[in-house]
Amino acid sequence: MASGSSGDLDALLRVTSPTYVGDRHPDIAFGTHDGPVGRLILAVTGRGVVSCSYEDENLVFERVSRNVSTFIGADPRRLDPVRRELDAYFSGRLRAFTTPVDLQLATPFARTVLQMMMAVPYGTVTTYHLIAERIGRPRALRAVGNALGGNPVCVIVPCHRVVENETVLGGYAGGTTAKERLFRIEGIQGNPIAP
Prior knowledge:
By secondary structure, this protein is an alpha/beta fold. The protein is built from seven helices and six strands, in the order αβββαβααβααβα. α5 packs across α6. Helix content is 37%, strand content 13%. The strands form two sheets. The chain has a four-stranded mixed sheet, with helices on both faces. Strands 5-6 form a two-stranded parallel sheet. InterPro entries: MethylDNA_cys_MeTrfase_AS (IPR001497), MethylDNA_cys_MeTrfase_DNA-bd (IPR014048), MethylDNA_cys_MeTrfase_DNAb (IPR036217), MethylG_MeTrfase_N (IPR008332), MGMT_N_sf (IPR036631), WH-like_DNA-bd_sf (IPR036388). Keywords: DNA damage, DNA repair, Methyltransferase, Transferase. It is an enzyme of class 2 (transferase). This is methylated-DNA--[protein]-cysteine S-methyltransferase.
């Protein structure tokens, strides 16, 4: 179930964003979404979703205001399409997100890794090793893991679809319970590694 901008979030926006004006469309639409994997913190730029994060909303807000823009506010017109797609995905009605993604919070190397993850099909998984090979850096397993661990657009950029190997699930920003739940939503059983 999607949640709108709470009074606390509105207060945060007014205090921390000096250019915040409630009735003018902000550069960054900022809000939350509550779903079966917990609360996700959303931020949407004119180019796409820049954050879909499990992190604390104050940390996400600070990162976005420091690296993207300080004109941040609640803008349901831009947040609601993302929330609808997340609801459809969580209910098993959506297999591929159509909402554009803005990876400007990721390093250039991480962008390469995350773009590779967007090509991993719904209902399948890959490994850190296969991702490293596909980007031409077969020995960069730790760097690939760090890029996935720092994914600013979780769920939409499906970093949950990477496993250590056929028997080891591996970590996830939202925790192993969230990763297992996402696997159940997608019908992933026994780590079917994509070719």
